[in-house]
Amino acid sequence: MSAPATRPALPAWPGDPSGLTAAGIDFEALAHVLANTCRWGGKTRRFYSVAQRAAVASEAIEALDGLGPEERRTLALRALLADARIAWLGDAEAGGATSARAAERHRRDGAAIDRAVLEAAGVDGAPTPEQGDLLRFVARMTGAAERRDLEGAGFGRGAGVAFPPLKRRIRPVEPGKAARLWLNRFRELAGPPSGSANPAGAGASPAGPNTNDQEENSDVAHLARTQREKTPHGTDPESQGRPRAA
Questions:
Q1: Does the pLDDT value for residue 146 go beyond 70?
Q2: Three-state DSSP class for 63?
Q3: Mean pLDDT, the chain, as a whole number?
Q4: How many structural domains does the chain have?
Q5: pLDDT tens digits for 125-144?
Q6: Rounded mean pLDDT of 3-13?
Q7: CA 81/CA 176 separation, integer angstroms
Q8: Taking 50 as the threshold, does the pLDDT of residue 218 lie above it?
Q9: pLDDT at 191
C-alpha cells in the first residue's frame, strides 16, 4: 500500500504584523503579494505592481558606478525590500484619511516589519547618510519615471515629473512575471557576493533594455553631490535612510 501523498506546505502569507520576526518572513509569499498589489491603490489604466517598481529601483542602484561589490549588492537589496511593508500594511500612496493614532501605529508597525524583513534577508545595520541619500534619489527618479511612462496613474492633475526620471522606460508586466522578477532578484542579491564586479548577475530587466547607464550614473552622482537631504528635526531614527517612494 502506497503512502498517502503529502500536501505542499502553505505559504506564510503576510498577515498581522504584531510580533513579526525574521523567522516568520516567507520571501516567496512576499513576492507574490507585492506582485499582486497594484500601485496607487489600482488608480492606473495598466496594472503596475509594487514588486515591479521595487525591481526597477533595485536594478537602477545596481547599474551605478563607484560602488564596491558588497555595497552595490546591499544597496540593491535594500531598494528591492524598501516597500516590503506594503504586503502587511497596504500602500500608503493609495491615499485615504487616517487618524493620528492610526498613523502612529502604521509607523510603528512599518518600522518593525522593515527590521524583520532586512534581518531575514541578511542585511545588517543602517545605511550611512550617503547611502541613504543615494537610495532616496533613486527612489525619486523611479517615481519620476513612473509619472513619465504611466501617464495619469494616480498622480492627480498637474503632478508632472518633479524629479529627473530614470532614462530607461517602464513597461508594466503581468503579476506572475513581476513575482518571478522580484524573487529572482532577491535570490541573486541575498546571498554573499561572488567577488565579481556585478555579483548579483544581470537577470531579466523589468524596465526594458538598459542603454543609458553611463548617463544615468552621472545624473545620480550629481544629485548626490548637490542636493544632499538633511534629516528633519524630530525624525524617527528607525526610519532614517529608508528610501521613500516619490
A1: yes
A2: coil
A3: 79
A4: 1
A5: 999 999 999 999 999 999 99
A6: 70
A7: 18
A8: no
A9: 67
pLDDT higher than threshold 90 for residue 47: yes
Q: Please, are residues 136 and 229 in contact by the beta-carbon 8 Å criterion?
A: yes
Start-to-end CA distance of the chain, whole Å, equals 60
At 115, is the secondary structure helix, strand, or coil? helix
Residue 160 covered by a domain: yes
- Cell matching residue 155: 498622480
Report the C-alpha gap between 20 and 37 in whole angstroms: 21
Return the residue matching grid coordinates 550611512: 128
Q: Are 39 and 18 in contact (CB under 8 A)?
A: no
C-alpha cell at 59: 536594478
Q: Does residue 13 lie in a domain region?
A: no
Q: Tell me phi and psi for residue 199, to 5 degrees.
A: -65, -25
Which residues does residue 38 pair with via DSSP β-bridges, in sequence order? 49
Q: Which residue from 24, 52, 59, 17 is spatially nearest to 38, judged by alpha carbons?
A: 52
Range of the domain at 106: 24-230
- Residue 107 is part of a domain; what is its CATH number? 1.10.3210.10
Location of C-alpha cell 516567507: 26
Q: Counting every residue, how long is the chain?
A: 246
pLDDT per residue as tens digits for the range 60-104: 999 999 999 999 999 999 999 999 999 999 987 666 657 899 889
Query: Helix and strand tally (H, E) in the chain?
Result: 8, 0
**Domain-embedded: residue 170:** yes
9, part of any domain = no
Residue 162 pLDDT exceeds 60? yes
Put residue 184 in one of left, alpha, beta given phi > 0 → left and psi -120 to 50 → alpha: alpha
Closest CA to 206 of 175, 181, 237: 181
Tell me if the pTM is above 0.85. no
DSSP state of 4: P
